[in-house]
Design a protein that fits this description.
The chain is an alpha+beta fold. The protein is built from 15 helices and 30 strands. The protein has a six-stranded mixed sheet. Strands 3-2-10-5-8 form a five-stranded antiparallel sheet. The protein has a three-stranded antiparallel sheet with strand order 7-6-9, with no helix packed on it. Pfam families: PK_Tyr_Ser-Thr (PF07714).
């Protein structure tokens, strides 16, 4: 790092400060400033600066080099431009031993005016390694006089004491003389290219330190194929290597440069040509099949709504090959959905998922399918089954969901017959109500599920309910209720919707009432309409439907709670839509039931029943209430209450 030479002026053009930039770094004359790696820069306006070196001759020095920089005003110089306007640069000759600059702009004959030149108050000159400096117009006013620049030096053996004449030896003069430094076997002398003197190198085939005895070692060229090519069999030798073609091969030249080709007979050549021809045909066929398969996947992607779904940021779109990796070779069969089988899968991060067939998409159903997917991506809630992604490069689109390890509520109630206590059933009802309430409470766009039933309420490993299967769901504005093409399963469907085609959030409330009824009776809804009518009639006539409760939970201490849940179910199942509670009220009533059960206080229900039924604020914080811990252990309740 060497300093910059500079000369600064005041407004009248007089010199106020200067420096030739010299540093005594080379008093022994060993180093030369590299002419191949450095260049000279001159910065300023109306200035000429040069550098000189070499022994005297006709002039005091052997050579002079520099350049002239000129500016008309403060706008003349441009960033990155160094061709004479505010900046110039030139290559330097070899042999330069110092960085002393001649500031010619202040000498006689070169006294160019610097009066009122505030846009360039100083001139600068410096040697710098090529590529390490790019001119900026601000440097004319802002470059500090303490600036240093990096440069590179050349060196050589330049001991003048070796030669009695006082001059430095070249290789021709120094070999075999006392003090000769190329002492290693397999070393050689090389004349310096920048000034007098010489260097030592290891000869070809060797590497190491030529200035030490035995410093040059043999190179194993066969281990360095990039540096020492061989197209055949390589054999290392002392200081070199041999390269020959293997048996049955030959080269048209040196195998180090030319390839080794098989020695083929005419028959072999014909066989090879035939094999190559067949191979070409096979490759062409395979390439065509691959292209057709790619084209088919692209067409399926487009047909299945890929263009519309590609912009859904919450959705991961899996390729066909990615889906195959997720499902694996022997994916576990989980069950049969409405449109196809459901299989267990594993994501690359080992997360378990469920892969489910969707509807077969065509021109008529594409909008229905993409709407279903968009609905699900908009719903992020702990009680709604999360849609992770989909695959559209298949005949029937596949949907990838989070995995619910305990299957559906329908399977738990009627197939596997888990011994569910009342507390757990109440938790399942509350979680399901929270999910539906979230769907109904969207301020901008209300979502009607349209297919609420136990088979569409899935349970995870902790028996947390997850509302699923949105194939019949619709995004409707608060004013829009008609959805004639949505038809749910008959046992759970709202009779008002069946008769009018009018789908509202309270259609889901009716279906949820049927689910509540199934939770406390554990009877399947094959004969749902008759059973619903019987249950509601018993409540109307007798104020109770105790005979229909599941005997596993119909104990004396549970009867009051069951009656309250039954009363809520009958309210949900009213034929008068306006008489039904909304999901917010349903959730509030269930939460109060759980809270009263936890504290053993049935009076809490009585205190709030009138407020809730009238759909007026009861002062209950639903978020606080639903987050209250359930009494007992955190694992699912299987024992009798």
């Amino acid at each position: 790092m060497l300093p910059v030479a500079f000369q600064c002026f005041n407004s009248t053009g007089d010199t106020t400060d200067f420096s030739y930039g010299t540093v005594d770094f080379n008093s022994a004359g060993v180093y030369r400033i590299s002419n191949t790696h450095n260049e000279l820069f001159v910065l300023g306006c109306n200035t000429q600066i040069y550098i000189n070196s070499g022994p005297p001759g006709r002039y005091p020095y052997s050579y002079y080099t520099g350049c002239v920089a000129y500016c008309n005003d403060s706008r003349s110089a441009k960033d990155g431009a160094c061709a004479g306007i505010g900046c110039c640069h030139v290559d330097i000759p070899p042999g330069l031993t110092s960085n002393w600059m001649s500031l010619a702009s202040g000498t006689v004959g070169y006294a160019w005016s610097h009066v009122d030149q505030e846009f360039s108050p100083c001139d600068y000159a410096f040697l710098v390694e090529k590529g390490n400096y790019v001119f900026k117009a601000d440097d004319l006013t802002k470059m500090p006089t303490t600036q240093t620049m990096p440069l590179r030096l050349d060196w050589a053996i330049r001991d003048s004491n070796i030669n009695s004449t006082g001059s430095m030896y070249s290789c021709a003069q120094v070999t075999n003389r006392t003090g000769y430094t190329c002492v290693s076997d397999h070393s050689e002398c090389v004349d310096s290219t920048n000034g007098p003197g010489y260097l030592c190198n290891c000869t070809s085939g060797y590497e190491g330190n030529p200035y030490l005895p035995q410093g040059c070692k043999n190179i194993n060229e066969c281990a360095r194929r990039e540096e020492y090519p061989c197209n055949g069999e390589c054999h290392d030798t002392e200081g070199s290597y041999n390269c020959v073609c293997g048996r049955g091969y030959q080269s048209d030249g040196d195998p180090k440069k030319s390839p080794c080709n098989p020695k083929f007979s005419r028959t072999a050549k014909l066989a090879l040509g035939l094999a190559l021809g067949v191979s070409f045909i096979i490759v062409a066929i395979l390439s065509t099949l691959v292209m057709l398969e790619r084209r088919k996947r692209m067409e399926l992607f487009r047909k299945n709504g890929g263009k519309s779904l590609r912009g859904v940021t919450e959705l991961t779109i899996f390729t066909k090959s990615e889906l195959q990796k997720i499902m694996g070779k022997d994916s576990e069969f989980l069950g049969k959905g409405r449109f196809g089988n459901v299989f267990k899968g594993t994501l690359p991060n080992n997360t378990m998922v469920a892969v489910k067939a969707s509807i077969k998409v065509n021109k008529e159903t594409k909008e229905e399918f993409t709407e279903e997917v968009k609905i699900q991506t908009k719903m992020i809630h702990k009680n709604i089954l999360k849609l992770i992604g989909c695959c559209l490069e298949v005949d029937v689109p596949k949907l990838v969901y989070e995995f619910a390890s305990n299957g559906s509520l329908e399977e738990t109630l009627h197939r596997r017959r888990h011994p569910l206590g009342l507390n757990l059933r109440l938790d399942i009802a509350i979680g399901s109500a929270e999910g539906l309430n979230y769907m109904h409470s969207n301020a901008a766009l209300v979502i009607r599920h349209g297919d609420v039933k136990p088979g569409n309420i899935l349970l995870d490993e902790n028996f947390t309910p997850k509302i699923s299967d949105f194939g019949l769901s619709k995004l409707l504005t608060p004013e829009d209720h008609n959805s004639n093409n949505v038809v749910g399963p008959l046992p759970y469907i709202d009779p008002v919707y069946m008769n009018t085609g009018r789908l509202t959030p309270k259609s889901d409330v009716y279906s949820f009432g049927a689910v509540l009824l199934e939770l406390i009776t554990r009877e399947e809804n094959d004969n749902a309409q008759e059973r619903i009518k019987k249950f509601c009639r018993l409540y109307t006539e007798q104020g109770s439907a105790r005979a229909m409760y599941d005997k596993d939970i119909a104990t004396a201490e549970n009867i009051f709670m069951l009656e309250e849940i039954g009363k809520l179910a009958t309210d949900c199942l009213k034929e008068d839509v306006d008489g039904r509670p909304d999901m917010t009220e349903v959730l509030e009533r269930l939460v109060i039931l759980r809270r009263s059960r936890q504290h053993g206080n049935t009076q809490d229900i009585s205190d709030h029943r009138d407020d809730i039924t009238a759909n007026t604020p009861s002062g209950i914080d639903i978020n606080e209430a639903t987050s209250a811990p359930v009494s007992g252990p955190s694992t699912p309740e299987f024992s009798q209450p």
